[in-house]
Design brief:
By secondary structure, the protein is of the alpha/beta class. Helix content is about 40%, strand content about 15%. The protein is built from seven helices and five strands, in the order βαβαααβαβαβα. The chain is globular and about 60 Å long. The chain starts with a strand and ends with a helix. The protein binds flavin mononucleotide.
Length: about 200
């Protein structure tokens, strides 16, 4: 039995392809694994604030007992980290924005990657036995073998930052070339949906 953290980061609603794909994955998954449970986090529609001075002072504080100001500054981070620790699997919808991830998802990562909570001062990740699926949507194509692969800062960044906190089992499914004409768009969506179907029984 698994607990899944389902997260969307597109600010778009019904037009969002990444949202549609995470939703499709989760609805098929729970049909095939009815004992599994899901927590939903929407950082696209409910953006996460960037870390600020009080957050940094609290996160790096050497004292056990924080002032109420610093404890308050870490409250959302505490909540998000509890969610991340509780889940065994992550299903994240992530559009490509300017060759990387949307700023709201970066703010989420900054809240979750926290010293002594998700990594140690010796750079040891504290998350264990987790699996991550990233459903990434892109206007152009960056897959291996394409000319644009060197512009993809998304996959290397996400593998590095989540690897840093201990999540190394990461699968990417891309819906790419979504702005490359209807034929490419439909082919890419069909391919992503096939891979999603395969993941339901093999993940
Ligand atoms: C602000 C912004 C920046 C974008 N930057 C890129 C980019 O660098 N590369 C790319 O291939 N597509 C880019 N796109 C296209 C999106 O990745 C594409 O529309 C994707 O479907 C968005 O995900 P969503 O459908 O879940 O909202 C960008 C779109 C927006 C709105």
């Amino acid at each position: 039995m698994s607990h899944i953290l389902h997260l969307d980061s597109s600010p778009r609603g019904s037009r969002s392809i990444s949202r549609a794909l995470t939703q499709e994955f989760i609805s098929h998954w729970v049909k095939h694994h009815p004992q599994d449970t899901v927590t939903y986090r929407d950082v696209g529609k409910h953006p996460i604030p960037p870390v600020d001075e009080a957050w940094i002072a609290g996160a790096f504080s050497k004292t056990e007992v924080l002032s109420s100001e610093l404890a308050n500054a870490l409250q959302l981070s505490d909540e998000l980290i509890t969610e991340v620790l509780k889940a065994d699997r992550y299903v994240f919808g992530v559009p490509m924005y300017n060759f990387n991830i949307p700023a709201n998802f970066k703010s989420y990562i900054d809240q979750v990657v926290r010293i002594n909570r998700t990594f140690t001062p010796a750079w040891k990740g504290l998350l264990k036995h987790k699996k991550m699926l990233i459903l990434s949507t892109r206007g152009s194509r960056y897959a291996a073998g394409t000319d644009l692969i060197r512009y993809d800062f998304q996959e290397p960044y996400l593998r590095t930052v989540f690897g840093f906190i201990g999540v190394s089992d990461i699968t990417f499914i891309y819906a790419e070339g979504l702005n490359d004409g209807e034929k490419v768009r439909q082919q890419s969506l069909a391919q992503a949906r096939d891979l999603i179907q395969q993941m339901i029984t093999t993940w």
